[in-house]
Write a structure and sequence with these properties.
20% helix, 6 helices, five-stranded mixed β-sheet, six-stranded mixed β-sheet, Purple Acid Phosphatase, chain A, domain 2, alpha/beta
Length: 286
């Protein structure tokens, strides 16, 4: 019987166009040396979905020597071409189309995608998450089709917690998605978006569900240095270690909660990770 031991790298928010090349070289070397069973990238590959940014992202992702699944982030939807955004929003992923929203079979564990980035929505800020009926149905169907005894890691871009505040909720219909996922064999929901890592056990009316967020590998750091999550699946249990170049402890890298409006912390004193490396200003974007 094969060993039920899987190493998975969870990356997010690389933001090519403002990527951190030192961090990317380090992660690529870690993948080459540790040979993870899979790499899950939970969105925001680019900064402004420009062709040159996608070209750089495609080159880097295709060079990784591991099975990869990629989620689409809000930064990956075309910014400056409304026709393309509405009619062919995934066109710029063509160099890695086989990896986009791809389900990965890892034996007793599977990575299943759930799309949260949409081309448009009935509120002003389109950068926020939205779980459509079709996206949730597709995800649940994939989970229900897994062999008996197989657990799922659900890969999304936006954290799913819905806090109920008008106009500033994290992901619309995220609460419903969490309830449905809690009824199924889901080991955790993997996400990005807020640029700081977290590991939260969310309580729902259908039971608890684990939410695991990865930090950023870009220069757009928030309260913690660039990082990624090293997930270990051993005998039906998932452990999470936050890896970073500064050798900061995992607990000190993790925020205690997801900000209510899904915006990363910007000011000292906000409920952020103990490292509190909040930059004075965002890096310039040209």
């Amino acid at each position: 019987m094969a060993s039920d031991d899987r190493l998975i790298f969870h990356l997010s928010d690389i933001h090519f166009g403002l990527e951190n090349n030192r961090a990317l070289d380090w992660v690529k070397q870690e993948i080459a040396e540790k040979a993870p069973a899979a790499v899950a990238i939970t969105g925001d590959l680019t900064m402004r979905a420009r062709h040159r940014e996608f070209a750089a992202a495609t080159h880097w992702i295709n060079s990784l020597d591991a099975p990869v699944t990629v989620e689409v982030g809000n930064h990956d939807m075309p910014y400056f071409n409304p026709f393309e955004r509405f009619f062919t929003p995934y066109k710029r992923f063509r160099g890695m189309e086989g990896k986009v929203e791809c389900e990965l079979d890892l034996g007793s564990l599977a990575i299943v995608p759930l799309k949260t980035a949409v081309r448009a929505q009935p509120r002003f800020n389109w950068s926020k998450g939205w779980v459509t009926d079709a996206a949730l149905k597709k995800c649940l169907k994939a989970i229900d089709a897994l062999p008996q005894g197989t657990q799922a890691l659900v890969a999304v871009h936006h954290p799913l917690r819905e806090v109920g505040t008008q106009g500033t909720a994290l992901t619309r219909h995220g609460d419903r998605a969490l309830r449905e996922l809690a009824r199924r064999p889901v080991a955790a929901v993997l996400s990005g978006h807020v640029h700081d890592a977290f590991d939260i056990l969310e309580q729902t009316p259908e039971g608890p569900i684990r939410m695991v967020g990865a930090g950023t590998l870009s220069k757009r750091t928030r309260s913690t240095p660039p990082s990624f999550n090293e997930l270990r699946w051993v005998e039906g249990k998932l452990s999470v270690k936050v890896r970073n170049l500064e050798d900061v402890r995992t607990r000190d890298m993790q925020i205690d909660d997801v900000p209510e409006d899904a915006r990363p912390p910007r000011q000292p004193g906000e409920p952020v990770a103990p490292v509190r490396q909040v930059p004075r200003v965002d890096p310039p974007v040209h």
